[in-house]
Amino acid sequence: YSAQERMGEPARAVRALPDAETSVRSGGGSRAAIALVVLIALAFAVAVYIGFRSPYPQPATRRAEPLRTTVVPLAPRGVVPGGSPEQLYRAEPVAGFRTGAAGINYPAVERTQNFSDSQITAALATVKDYLVESSLNPDVLTGSVRRPVEHLLDPDQRPQFERSLSDPADDGSRAATGWLVRFDPEQVELADPRIRVQGTLRYEEEAPGVLDVLSDHTFTYALRPADGPHRDDDASLFTVRRELHFRFDR
């Protein structure tokens, strides 16, 4: 599957990362919000801005931007081939993909002018956590749970998140698939929970005190009809591309 990706100018939904001396795993209940721009090539392309909780101090006056989306529905060009998950995963290009979170790898980390190694590592860890929970968690994918994604969001955005999942609409602000990857459990189910992943993470200090983390990953799911009885060869592959742009401010 492919999509003509759409992305608008990123909006700020950011909060301060720690000073250079702060440990990556330091505790506390405060949070840092970051801007996230998500483009998903699933049956749509989407640009979304969300915030995250993080255990670092932030100015109390900053508020996360609401999610905004643009959805472009797509359809396959021909018949989707079927088979067993093992057979389908052996075909190119998926054969070169890694399994699950192992396909989401950090780049080599070197401090920038205004961000320490630990701050950059913390930002990358937040990005990976979001990717894992919103793209790989089988319970999230089938719609049975939402908390693993919700707890990463800024509290200001949680009401919008809840509305998007309980009453989704393609109106630019309530697309459930703007927050996470989700399949209709009445139509399909995972034929293999070992999702294949390939992509990259990179970062740069875009401006003094502004760290961008860019994520570009392709997720390949083996799905089969939810109605039984099931056969060993009734699976087909469904591919999602997610390009995310996270922005961290000091």
Number of strands: 6
> Can you write the helix and strand succession as a string?
EEHEHHHHEEE
Number of domains: 1
Give the rounded overall mean pLDDT. Answer: 78
Largest sheet: 6 strands, antiparallel
Transmembrane segments: 32-52
Keywords: Membrane, Transmembrane, Transmembrane helix
List its traits.
globular; 25% strand; disordered N terminus; alpha+beta; 16% helix; single chain; six-stranded antiparallel β-sheet; 250 residues; 5 helices
Folded structure, characterized:
- The chain is of the alpha+beta class and 250 residues long.
- Helices cover 16% and strands 25% of the residues.
- It is built from 5 helices and 6 strands, in the order ββαβααααβββ.
- Strands 1, 2, 3, 4, 5 and 6 form a 6-stranded antiparallel sheet that branches.
- The chain crosses the membrane at residues 32-52.
- Keywords: Membrane, Transmembrane, Transmembrane helix.
Concise overview:
With 250 residues, the protein is an alpha+beta fold.
Architecture blueprint of SSEs:
Elements: E1 35-41, E2 82-83, H1 85-89, E3 98-99, H2 117-135, H3 138-141, H4 147-150, H5 158-166, E4 188-207, E5 210-225, E6 235-249
Antiparallel strand pairs: 1-6, 2-6, 3-4, 4-5, 5-6
Transmembrane segments: 32-52
Keywords: Membrane, Transmembrane, Transmembrane helix
